[in-house]
Amino acid sequence: MRKIPPELVQRYEAAGWWTPQGVGQLLAAGLDAAPDSPFRVHSEVRPYDGTFRDVERVARRLAAGLRARGVGPGDRIAFQLPNWMEAAAVFWASAFLGAVVVPVVHFYGRKELGYILRAVEPKVFVTAERFGRMEHQPDLYAGVPVVGVVGRDFDALLADEPLSGTAPVDPAREVLIAFTSGTTRDPKGVLHSHRTLAFETRQLAERYPPEWGRLLTAAPVGHFIGMVNAFLVPVLAGNPVNLLDVWDPAKALELMLSDGLVTGGGTAYFVTSLLDHPAFTPDHLRYMRYAGLGGGTIPSVVVDRLADLGIKAFRSYGSTEHPSVTASPHTAAEHLRTRTDGKALPGVEIRLAEDGEILSRGPDLCLGYTDAALTEQAFDGDGWYRTGDIGVLDEDGYLTITGRKADFIIRGGENISAPEVEEALLAMDGVAEAAVVAVPDARLGERAAAVVRVRAGSRMPTLDIMRAHLERTGLARQKWPEQLHEVEDFPRTASGKIQKHLVRRDVAARA
């Protein structure tokens, strides 16, 4: 873990941003204050209709069952589940036990999941027998001591009597390892403590407009922000939990009119897919007063369209490492809400390096990575995090992201490591070199395009051949390039390195 300067610790504690309270205590207090709040899963596969009290009992029975199997404070509990009740039960049980939870997005394939399990060596792993393309793969987690499969033997992990109380914890210790893709070939394990996660939860809860309404969470709970919005923020506020396990615009629109549910925003795609759906009507605009946008590039055409419909959009900026860096309040002037990424949030500091790279630090900044070498590269001794993003600050402190030093693409909020995909492409027959770059997309913000140079005498692969190859490698489908281009050679630096900014420009010109 990175070293946090003592003066920062003192400042955060004095301001009340860091407290002695663990995440388990935070949860227990919220659940006790609103036990009858509804907890619903809107699913064709595994629907659920209960209350906070019902789900807490499952979580506490699971916690007791795991404790009987030798699981305790500091042990790692991983899960790969869709937005189901059992995902909440695993997360809440981990918090009550003082364990470290490791959520894995349900669409990660064998390659990513295998790496994560090897990296964290969990004592428990919970998954589903099947969901979409995800399926039970016992060979991947044969070495995990305790495995539970929802739809098969998950209930066998539950004790008859629930665990009482919450294990005492050191709030400075890790409570969550969230994996995210980026510039490295393998997912990066981001460590968050009780202090950083609790502060982020409180900050998010305070940022929602009070008149927003009852939120529907469709973002995967295997993602950091999806998990926090699904299982922590509503509990803190005493609001109902409504989960959707597959993003289905028709279902979301139906739930708006039938249950009065609203979507919180997220990436531009979650909003545009509603507006573009044939079932969308002017009646739905009553439930679309606000759109909090973030998680990647926000095309100006999207925010202009929202404004024309009377939807008040506001942008924010953050990452798994530093979840909430800047945001525009929903009360800010339109040009600030929609053309900048906002101002530094309470407790957060930002500054720009000489090359324009954004450096940040604050009470919700992570502890570092599971890979000590990555931690050394990304953080300095004064507590600053090198984001890899390029930006500009105006005279009033509003930040606008203008580019990216890091070599990854953000497709609909999902980070795609360009080197990881390039490595997979280089294993294809006949491919001599490959470059993967971002191309603009009006719905998703960005999507991946692959540019390849084939060896002399080899034929250029088709998009279908490339997809079949990536399927065999086990790479998650969300990472597959959606365009494929051929070049005789790449633009290069004097040292022979591919100039990706020129590749990106050329691909955009072709489009």
Task: Describe this entry's structure for a reader.
The protein has 511 residues and is an alpha/beta fold. The protein has 16 helices and 28 strands. Among the domains are: 19-38 and 49-208, Rossmann fold (3-Layer(aba) Sandwich); 408-510, GMP Synthetase, Chain A, domain 3. Strand 27, helix 15 (463-473) and strand 28 (483-486) form a beta-alpha-beta unit. Helix 2 (23-33) packs across helix 4 and helix 3 (52-68) crosses helix 4.
Uncertain runs with pLDDT below 50, 5 residues or more? none
Q: Estimate the strand proportion.
A: 25-35%
- The CATH superfamily label of one domain reads ANL, N-terminal domain
Helical percentage: 25-40%
CATH class group of one domain: Alpha Beta
Q: What form results from the Cα inertia axes?
A: globular
Strand order of the largest sheet: 14-15-16-17-18
**Looking at CATH, which topology of one domain would you report?**
Rossmann fold
Average the pLDDT over all residues and give the rounded result: 92
Per-chain topology:
Blueprint lengths: L5 H9 L8 H11 L4 E5 L5 E4 H17 L7 E5 L4 H13 L2 E4 L6 H11 L3 E5 L1 E2 L2 E2 L10 E5 L23 E7 L7 E6 H14 L6 E3 L7 H8 L1 H5 L3 E4 L4 H11 L1 E3 L1 E2 L1 H8 L14 E4 L6 H9 L3 E6 L8 E2 L6 H6 L3 E2 L4 E4 L4 E5 L6 E2 L2 H7 L6 E9 L5 E6 L3 E4 L2 E4 H9 L4 E11 L3 E10 L8 H11 L9 E4 L13 H11 L1
Parallel strand pairs: 1-12, 3-4, 3-5, 5-8, 11-13, 14-15, 15-16, 27-28
Antiparallel strand pairs: 1-2, 6-7, 9-10, 10-21, 16-17, 17-18, 19-20, 20-22, 22-23, 24-25, 26-27
Helix pairs in contact: 2-4, 3-4
